[in-house]
Design goal:
Layout lengths: L1 H21 L5 E3 L3 E7 L5 E9 L7 E6 L4 E5 L9 E8 L5 E11 L5 E10 L1
Parallel strand pairs: 2-8
Antiparallel strand pairs: 1-3, 3-6, 4-7, 5-6, 7-8
């Protein structure tokens, strides 16, 4: 009985290992994950486009890009990004408040790392 239980357990572990290796999944590779605008003029919105490629084995689908505050907005590639293809997340900061700023954008997707954070920073003169 003990040998049979060990045999079943070994088979189960082997099946789980095989299935986990067979699951294809997409993955982001951003050119950079933080952008520093430096000094920007007051009340003049500043934008930046974060470029990425899909280094995984399945299409990437971005579900949402959420800014950390209402002073920023984001647009992103809405169609699935096939393995080897590129996409972008374009962000805009409204620059209404003077002084230094740091803002994050949380990306939710179907990737190996399902939650990714991009950062912008700078100083509004």
């Amino acid at each position: 009985m003990k040998k049979r239980t060990l045999g079943i357990l070994a088979t189960f572990v082997a099946i789980i290992g095989f299935v986990s290796m067979a699951v294809a999944i997409g993955e982001f590779k951003f050119e950079k994950e933080t952008h520093d605008f430096g000094n920007i003029p007051h009340n003049k919105p500043a934008s930046y486009s974060f470029q990425f490629s899909n280094t995984g084995d399945a299409p990437i689908i971005i579900n949402e890009v959420k800014p950390s505050c209402g002073c920023s907005v984001a647009e992103f590639t809405k169609t699935p990004i096939k393995p080897g293809d590129t996409g972008n997340v374009s962000v805009t900061y409204n620059a209404a408040a003077r002084g230094p700023f740091t803002k994050q954008f949380t990306i939710k997707s179907n990737t190996k790392t399902p939650i990714k954070t991009l950062t912008i920073k700078g100083n509004v003169e």
